[in-house]
Specification:
The structure is a homodimer of 686-residue chains.
Chain A: H1 2-23, H2 33-71, H3 79-99, E1 114-116, E2 132-138, E3 146-153, H4 164-168, H5 173-190, H6 194-199, H7 201-229, H8 237-247, H9 254-262, H10 266-297, H11 304-338, H12 345-365, H13 370-388, H14 391-422, H15 432-460, H16 467-475, H17 481-489, H18 494-524, H19 533-539, H20 542-548, H21 563-580, H22 587-590, H23 596-601, H24 605-609, H25 614-617, H26 619-622, H27 632-639, H28 672-675, H29 680-683
Antiparallel strand pairs in A: 2-3
Amino acid sequence: MAAGGVIAVFVTACCCISAAMAAQPATISPAASNIQKEKTVALQHTTDSLTILMLLGLLMLTILTVWLFKHRRFRFVHETGLSMIYGLIVGVIIKFIYATPTPPVTPDDSKVWAVLSESNNQTYYSGNAPPSLYISLPDSKNATANETFKYNLTSDGSAKPEPMLEKAVTFEPELFFNVMLPLIIFEAGYSMKRRHFFKNLGAIIMFAFIGTTISCLAVGGTMFGLTRLMSYTEFTLNDCFFFGAIISATDPVTVLALFHDLHVDVDLYAIVFGESVFNDAVAIVLSGSVETYGQLSGGKKFNAEAFFKALGNFLGIFGGAFAIGSLMGCATALITKYTKIRDFPLLETALFFLMSYSSFQTAEVAGLTGIVAVLFCGITQAHYTYNNLSAESKDRTKQLFELTNFLSENFVFLYIGVSVFTFQESRIRWDAGFIFASFLAIIIGRFLNVYPLSFLLNLGRTNKIGWNFQHMMMFSGLRGAIAFALAIRNTSTLPRQYIVSATMIIVLATVVLCGGLTTPMLQWLKIRVGVDEEMEMQQMPPNAVRSESGDPGEIPRTKGKAWLVAKWYNFDMVFMKPFLTNCRPTLMETLPKCCLPLAKLLTTEEQMTQGESHRDNDSDTDMIIDHSQLSIGESELSSIPSNHAENDTSRKLPIQEPETYDLGLGHNSQPMNLRVNLPGPAGDKV
Amino acid sequence: MAAGGVIAVFVTACCCISAAMAAQPATISPAASNIQKEKTVALQHTTDSLTILMLLGLLMLTILTVWLFKHRRFRFVHETGLSMIYGLIVGVIIKFIYATPTPPVTPDDSKVWAVLSESNNQTYYSGNAPPSLYISLPDSKNATANETFKYNLTSDGSAKPEPMLEKAVTFEPELFFNVMLPLIIFEAGYSMKRRHFFKNLGAIIMFAFIGTTISCLAVGGTMFGLTRLMSYTEFTLNDCFFFGAIISATDPVTVLALFHDLHVDVDLYAIVFGESVFNDAVAIVLSGSVETYGQLSGGKKFNAEAFFKALGNFLGIFGGAFAIGSLMGCATALITKYTKIRDFPLLETALFFLMSYSSFQTAEVAGLTGIVAVLFCGITQAHYTYNNLSAESKDRTKQLFELTNFLSENFVFLYIGVSVFTFQESRIRWDAGFIFASFLAIIIGRFLNVYPLSFLLNLGRTNKIGWNFQHMMMFSGLRGAIAFALAIRNTSTLPRQYIVSATMIIVLATVVLCGGLTTPMLQWLKIRVGVDEEMEMQQMPPNAVRSESGDPGEIPRTKGKAWLVAKWYNFDMVFMKPFLTNCRPTLMETLPKCCLPLAKLLTTEEQMTQGESHRDNDSDTDMIIDHSQLSIGESELSSIPSNHAENDTSRKLPIQEPETYDLGLGHNSQPMNLRVNLPGPAGDKV
């Protein structure tokens, strides 16, 4: 508490300093231009530092408050909501400081005016101001020698007075998209509870892909209708669908953090998590496609070619990014398996970090979407590479990404809060009617997403999605940083400026209100909290588990429709895992006899000596945020009946026997000739 | 190796893509300005991503090569040298790609020309181009309404064709000074082997402050003489001293990493480490002061007022930054001690990280030097806060800073390498004569720094600095990132452009050559390597240690001149440590009786229950990079003779008894009344 006070004083001090700095008149005498330039740079540097310091102060304040709330078990406001509220308060203060002395008067004589040269054969007006200007100035000593200087249009494109700090604290979408977002999404993939995720894969894909598209169309359609009704004639159909696309991205941060803290029912958790993570990627790609479509169709009513191009674009971008992310993950797995880099955990962690981040940048360079790439890279890293890491690197990578994720999340929400009031006025248009209409539209969109799809899914699910889950999913459709960042990325037209304001309000309202009301809502809907995943699995008798769950994605109990999933699972166990990781079984055990020389080549010594620390390598259960759940491996094993493998003759994969650590080599067709090759410690297990 | 191949292919691919992109003609049709703008943004984004990707690829390549070298115990090139060499190669490739198709022809009709308006009452010429221009453009619909647009001068100030990638990969000093450098220096302070550092504090301060000033003056003077001799008349005395200041910063990265790997003699390590870390700060402040002096004196011969202002500036900046850094460290210690935030290691680590970084930004905002602040913040955090952290946070912070430090270092050297060839030609002037002169000057400067000061120091030291150590110090004066970044920060005048080229070559030559030759040099000078610090301390009998070392900074064996140090040590043990950390003894044990109520208030429960895990809390020995040395605590204790405390009557501080974990309460004046308050586990120790 004392500490909170210290920080508060400190933040106030920052604000005072900033106020003092703002009061300094901007006297620009162009006499000593060099010294002047240096001073400008220095002042800019100080302002930047002040902005950073202010954000750091706010982050610290948030952390201390979060701690206080956690300490007192006070769950009414979540940390992201808190960040945003603090940001809002500081935004108001900044606004107030800069608004009070009326728009800061920049002395007019310090402005250097220019006119466009007659030689330009293009007419320019305010709508198409040239992006850069060239002027030619004579040399002071040699009048015949001219030097050319290039001037760039300032980002906002207008010469309205821009108080420095105000400009500086405006949300920078590139920083978000290039640094924060990859970190957040990678962590989501890396720390995913993959078992429950894959169990609900069908539902997740349905909600994320079809649901988001439905939501996009519904919101777009509703907005189109409402804007006609309210005569916002500037809005084209394309603008409406663009809004639909960006606002359909639900936020994976706030609700999930609460769900995680509360140990909410695992299936609900998995579905909401999966939906919101994929959602973001879908929304990013979808909004890009809508823009592409708009550019191709040229504003015409409907253009089939442009539509299919946009669709192809969507699929191509998603597929390409998926491929890049997965391949980069596999490459990391290969490097960590076949080199002895694990002897130097620092190098290993650094490499892991860099390879993961480069999956993002590779996708961006290829014109795909980095977020999808980094998500799948995270999943692949967790599934394969994690097994190869040294124990120290396992800890390091987990902790590193946890920390960067935490900081990024809070920073983003803080930044959103500050931006709401400090966003450049020329780039935003406030309109109560439009905001109201958009709230209506997102409710309709979410409704048409959740309930019809749940109905359809329930037709095929044994483990139905109950009404209370559906209501909770409806309620937990918070909009967050992605929607915000997508909205402010382009504010060149009037409709886009309306969209920015509506998105801001929607993000604020949903994060603070829905985020804050999640706990009461869970109670009201009678959704189980405090579910101990491990206990859950142990208490159910194996047969109950087996009969109860019949999801399309559930692997060991394969049905016809999940044929592809089963095939993949088999391929993964027989080839991918032995090839890419240091886990048992080795390729020598899983591949047919004819491939033995190749298999020998691809099997490392580490892999041969594995076996004792079996549980460590069972990455599907191991790679979860919660350390208390590290022992799930055993309980999971016991939940899979041993006589199950006979159901599927196509499967050679080693199903784990209950209660023992036998890796299922007994089911394998050629175990006998391999046993001799196994070194001591593993030998007695086989 | 296969992995290295993969990465190499990948980097080549990047280069090809970049070449392909460069080949695209820049067709700018200003017709659809909005779409055009979006496309420009998109292209810029792709270029940025490509640059980042290229650097990531190079970093990965460096890591893999470093691993290979470590794996094969091949120590000829250090990782920083390696980064730089890779950077150089890629720089050449980029240069080659962009140089081949002759300067890319930007179609002249796409340039929009402007002329300065008649209304400006200032004459502009090429030397004082206005930093920003305003133009007024009519609205397309409403011709009477004009809108004003602001244009900023592009950073390089000229309109020479700038290939995008070339511009993008140029070293960005702000990124270095604001992000990389704080991380590197904080890690230096945080992981400092404080025991040896403080033992050699006198020598370190002497070399860092006096030595760097001598070096600055010597280099400046030599350069002034040589430039007169070679008739580079542009160089003022001020320019020469500026060069002297920036080039006197020796690099803490390369040599130390080698020393650390080789386990070089601990005293040599401490002196070189301390010198190079403080050095950087001194050089930064010194160069700033020289600039201030230049601005104040206005180029006149000598101006006493300006000189003393610059000196005052120097002292004020150093003192202020020291105060900010230390206070921020203490604030962190207080927060971690008096809140229970250690229950949530993630929050704790995040707070620790943010508070440390904000010490840097606070100092920058206050117009001081952030690097000094962050260095002392690091030292304070290690000395106090580290003791209060949860075990998980101890690990996390160490690992986090180790990783960020590693990445920053390599990134910086890589970046330097790439920049050498891609640095904008308008900002650099190559001249063999000047470069040769500067090499001569730095050798003279280093010589006048090392040998005379060693001589002076040896007069007072029992543990003399031998000739071989002096030669090694002379040899290990590598120049690194600081010198480079300081040089390229301002390239507005011709002398500064000469300085950039000389600094680049000096950095390259010293890092690659001296860095590579460190190991042979150590052998040749017969300097002990493979010194196990722990063994070192254990093998010496306590009395031998005592008589052998008589450094000014050595604390337990205080002499008259180190009175202040002893006072501080006493104050630290009696007040600061008990107040700021959870270590024993508590304030209740160290403060006089009258303060008991206050002391009780300031003693936490954690602190009371400490005692068993005594060694963990002895942060002076604990906070070292090398985990194998964690057990030094005991051996250090045994090296201090117990009968020593009687020599100094002013000292109430608890001298640790040999062979026992008694914290010296027997020497304390009021231990008896406290014992009753102590809870069980600690009680039996006291």
